[in-house]
Amino acid sequence: MTGEQEKKRAWLRRAKTIEKYVQALQEKVVQYKEIQSLCNSDDLDSLELLQELEQEIQEQQKQAEELLAVRESIKKAISYLHDDELKEILTRHYLTYETIESVIENMYYGSRTIQRKHLKALDKIMIPKESEMK
Length: 134
Description:
Blueprint: H1 3-38, H2 44-79, H3 84-95, H4 100-107, H5 111-124, H6 130-133
Helix pairs in contact: 1-2, 2-3, 3-5
């Protein structure tokens, strides 16, 4: 894999990374809410906990919005490919988070064929400039 292909692959993988972070934040918020339900609202420590909970919720919302924006930019970049098979490979792998092995199985191609098509798709996909992504 070339350096340019690696760069594009990393760009495409951002959605999965952010989604994992959002899920971790969601779990943390659930934990805070459980603790909050046990706390006395007149207690000073409980007040601090409520403030932390509010910050976590805001962080989660911010990251969820970023995830939606990233997924949309990836979806848009994939949609510009003029080959439906290449689109499907990238969509399955980078937007539905299927492993390459799963893509191979679900698309009924051999391993080498999918790997070759994946590299071809990486060569063809255009990463938008930072100014175009905002």
